[in-house]
Amino acid sequence: MSERIFNFNAGPAAIPQSVLEEVRDDLLNYKGEGLSVMEMSHRSKSFDAIIKSAEALMKEVMEIPDGYKVVFFQGGATLQFAAVPMNLLTDGKFADYVNSGSWSKKAISEAKKLGKTVNVIASSEDDNFTHIPKGYKVTPGAEYLHITSNNTIFGTQYQEFPATGNVPLIADMSSDINCRKIDVSKFGLIYAGAQKNLGPSGTTIVIIREDLMKRSPENIPSMCSYNIIGGKDSLYNTPPTFGIYIIKLILEWIKGQGGLGKLEEINRKKAKMLYDSIDNSDFYRGTAKEDSRSIMNVTFRLPSEELEQKFVAEALQKGMLGLKGHRSVGGIRASIYNAVPMKAIETLVGFMADFKKQNG
Amino acid sequence: MSERIFNFNAGPAAIPQSVLEEVRDDLLNYKGEGLSVMEMSHRSKSFDAIIKSAEALMKEVMEIPDGYKVVFFQGGATLQFAAVPMNLLTDGKFADYVNSGSWSKKAISEAKKLGKTVNVIASSEDDNFTHIPKGYKVTPGAEYLHITSNNTIFGTQYQEFPATGNVPLIADMSSDINCRKIDVSKFGLIYAGAQKNLGPSGTTIVIIREDLMKRSPENIPSMCSYNIIGGKDSLYNTPPTFGIYIIKLILEWIKGQGGLGKLEEINRKKAKMLYDSIDNSDFYRGTAKEDSRSIMNVTFRLPSEELEQKFVAEALQKGMLGLKGHRSVGGIRASIYNAVPMKAIETLVGFMADFKKQNG
Fold it and tell me: In chain B, positions 180-239, which contact chain A (CB-CB < 8 Å)?
């Protein structure tokens, strides 16, 4: 194939083509400095400018208020499943968790495994995770409330966030960070693996309210400590320099697109096109409840598994990759992150109409 | 600068130019598949071929015997400083450590911080870490012996490894992995951050004897567990896919160079050229004891700090980057990893002669 494919992968996922072009053009000789970004010392002036710029852009794009720190970790959301309770859940106390899907369950089981007391205050598991739980109240005395803002596998997403009063709200936003405007001041901590909307896998963004950083106990691994990694401005040890560089470029791209307000508008339009073509048919059937639908991962079924396999195979032949649903639930999933262009959605919607005509 | 610089960075460090060229050429469209490696699902056939190939090449290049597993982690050597005792040092028991420099000290203090009992059986700290300790004996009952095979900051390197009998030998080889042939069967576990001889920062290689994998307790973070990450063939969660891809290319490059035997020959020649030009002068003074000299990091002093600053600045003007010694020890350090070409050493040696003539 000489052209770029339409990439509906759930993550690692599509990266804006202009970003990849810039990475390619500077790969052997960054800005005339005679070396690749991946060959730079993490203590050099050149890399310092890159990481500082990535942090500043993150604050600007997300309108992060004063009193928060942007920190780069390694280990994906999975390390954060452990880091959150290790840093913020004192032994003998408890934290509230909402169970809205597979990743929530992993966050809960990781905390429990470390001997922490987890209080699951709401769950949609009985409903096969087809909706986001609502109408619960945070337990007085909870050290925090943990939620998963978007459930990649089930195609559900918080439309509004719970009010938690003085209890810090902690969100795993791995699959929908920077897809829309949010009010960061409502959160104590936000974390996200980069590999959906922010860059390549291997870097995790943590946005943490500075007073929470200081809660980290001494006796946990340094690489899990908000106080140590945050206190050293993500340079306690060698960070994933190349990933941070690409995150910077993607944040510049977001600004160039008009910022999160404009991207949200585009993302809602992209999602609506897909949901409309599902709803206006008796052939396709959306799996998430309407009030919980994600604008990042659109999940649906066809009349049979056989047709679903055929759909995925024919779509691939037509240049659309990654439409197979997660192995745990089956069906079809179109992940339409920021970098998936409108043209990809138009092509998919056109294909869905054709496929229905031929197989309906 | 339109040309590539001579890169003597201590890490992240030089990457073979042919590898960077291949990365560049395939950046937007890997092997005609229509997407970048960093946009691929970590569960796709294409990425599976890449990671399997990286593992197989690592085994081939290092001649790793059966019964060992190659595993990719995140978090650098610093996470391994914690992971090693968390997985392998039972509470109430103890492990032996050799203190040969700053990174050994960090490994020791990380283990202690986690409440583990550390027994430092040998140290060169009183000698400013200018040599590798020798002549010690492993303590009977130790759960393992931990060493740092090469000390980036002090320019020292193990010339032969201690015999440990039944006690597993564990080595942090971050700064000299794949610089020479070693007998892997002498080790229980080897770990190395990729950013010196193997690839970009953000990926850590762990080579572990399979019986040790099973020792991991249940109550540690999954991202630190040899049994979990190893048991899932490095795919428990999303690994740093792009870094693993570059590691694969570098291992192919190593094979293309003639393997570790040939590379060791070249590395010894490169190091000898530098040490000779230090020893054959009363202007330059090597800091590591001769029997402990590293073939990866060559450290030396000039008659004054003022001259050292001038040396670093003039070298940079002549296209040689990264010669400043680590901030904790000062002086000059030339890191001459696998990817630093002979031409770079020749240029540096020539410059050293000129600089001495003009300033001696």
Answer: 193, 195, 199-203, 218-224, 236-239
Stretch B46-71: mean pLDDT, rounded? 98
Task: Give 10-residue mean pLDDT values along chain A (360 residues).
Answer: 88 98 98 97 97 98 98 98 98 97 98 98 97 96 98 97 97 98 98 97 98 97 98 98 98 98 98 98 96 98 97 98 92 98 98 96
Is-catalytic flag, A196? Answer: yes
> What is the rounded distance in angstroms from the CA atom of residue A41 to the CA atom of residue B304?
25
Q: Are residues A192 and A303 in the same domain?
A: no
Short-list B18, B39, B19, CA closest to B28: B39
Are B52 and B87 part of one and the same domain?
yes
Chain A residues touching residue B223 (CB < 8 angstroms): 75-76, 78-79, 82
Dihedral in degrees, nearest 10, Cα atoms B248, B252, B257, B260 = 60
Q: What mean pLDDT is predicted for residues B267-279?
A: 98
Would residue A14 count as lying in a domain? no
CA distance A115 to A91: 8
The nearest CA of chain A is from the CA of B114 a distance in Å of 5
Q: Quick one: tokens of B14?
A: 């030089």
Look at residue B20 in the predicted model and tell me its pLDDT. Answer: 98
Looking at the structure of chain A, the number of domains it has is 2
Tokens 């002086």, located at residue: B331
B196 belongs to the catalytic site? yes
Residue B1 has pLDDT above 60, yes or no: no
Which residue of chain A comes nearest to B115, CA vs CA?
A: A219
Domain limit, last residue, from B256, B282, B312? B256
pTM: predicted TM-score of the whole model, two decimal places:
0.98
In this prediction, residue A2 carries a pLDDT of 58
Domain boundary among A204, A238, A256: A256
Same-domain pairing of A143 and A267: no
Residue among B2, B78, B235, B318 with most chain A CBs within 10 A, to mutate = B78
Checking A266-271 for CB contacts under 8 A at 24+ apart, the result is A266/A342, A267/A179, A267/A180, A267/A295, A267/A296, A267/A336, A267/A338, A268/A295, A269/A342, A270/A295, A270/A336, A270/A340, A270/A342, A270/A345, A271/A295, A271/A296, A271/A298, A271/A336
Candidates A172, A176, A270, A324; catalytic one: A172
Domain that holds residue A252: 19-256
Considering the domain architecture, whether residues B166 and B271 belong to the same structural domain is answered as no
Average pLDDT of the residues of chain B: 97
The CATH number of the domain holding residue A350 is 3.90.1150.10
- Dist CA A72 CA B81 (whole Å): 19
Q: Clarify whether residues B268 and B218 are in a common domain.
A: no
**pLDDT > 90: what percent of chain B?**
98
For residue A77, the chain B residue with the least C-alpha distance is B237
| Greatest alpha-carbon span in chain B | 63
**How big is the A-B interface in CB pairs under 8 Å?**
218
Establish if B12 belongs to a structural domain.
Answer: no
Q: What is the mean pLDDT of residues B286-294?
A: 97
At residue B292, does pLDDT exceed 80? yes
Catalytic residue among B69, B116, B172, B248: B172
Calpha distance A97→A229 (Å, rounded):
25
Among residues A59, A69, A103, A324, which one is catalytic? A103
Q: Under an 8 A CB cutoff, do B4 and A114 touch? A: no
Is the same domain home to B293 and B162?
no
